[in-house]
Amino acid sequence: MYELNKEKRLRKNREYQLVYRRGKSFVNRLVVLYVLPRSPKQPSRIGFVTGKKIGCAVERNRCRRLMKEVYRLHQDSLQDGYDVVLIGRSYLKDVGYKEAEKSILQLFRRANIWKKRMQ
């Protein structure tokens, strides 16, 4: 239930590039979200990205872990049939879990990939 299997991840560069080119983007202060619709019968796939502007590898890895944890705890609340890429921005390194969760869930709702009301 809380796993991130290979079937649920974007793994190849061309998959990321397709989402960047054809997907719709949603932005806030902490995260950029790209969403590309697929067949509703297929499970949603997600990728996590942090650029070098965030800082050293330790900070980038922390930001990626933060985004993964928010997704892990809320993955059952997302609709199937989407490719999603979450890109951490430089402000993400300075916030805690609660702020990151609020920000990411807000983007999921704005992108209409959220199944139920946000608590």
TrEMBL record:
Catalytic class of the enzyme: hydrolase
Transmembrane segments: none
Catalysis: reaction(s): Endonucleolytic cleavage of RNA, removing 5'-extranucleotides from tRNA precursor
Keyword tags: Endonuclease, Hydrolase, Nuclease, RNA-binding, tRNA processing
Source organism, top-level taxon: Bacteria
EC number: 3.1.26.5
UniProt protein name: Ribonuclease P protein component
Function: RNaseP catalyzes the removal of the 5'-leader sequence from pre-tRNA to produce the mature 5'-terminus. It can also cleave other RNA substrates such as 4.5S RNA. The protein component plays an auxiliary but essential role in vivo by binding to the 5'-leader sequence and broadening the substrate specificity of the ribozyme.
Assembly notes: Consists of a catalytic RNA component (M1 or rnpB) and a protein subunit.
Family: Belongs to the RnpA family.
Entry-linked Pfam families: Ribonuclease_P (PF00825)
Keyword Signal: no
Coiled coil spans: none
GO MF: ribonuclease P activity
Record organism: Megasphaera hominis
InterPro entries: Ribosomal_Su5_D2-typ_SF (IPR020568), Ribsml_uS5_D2-typ_fold_subgr (IPR014721), RNase_P (IPR000100)
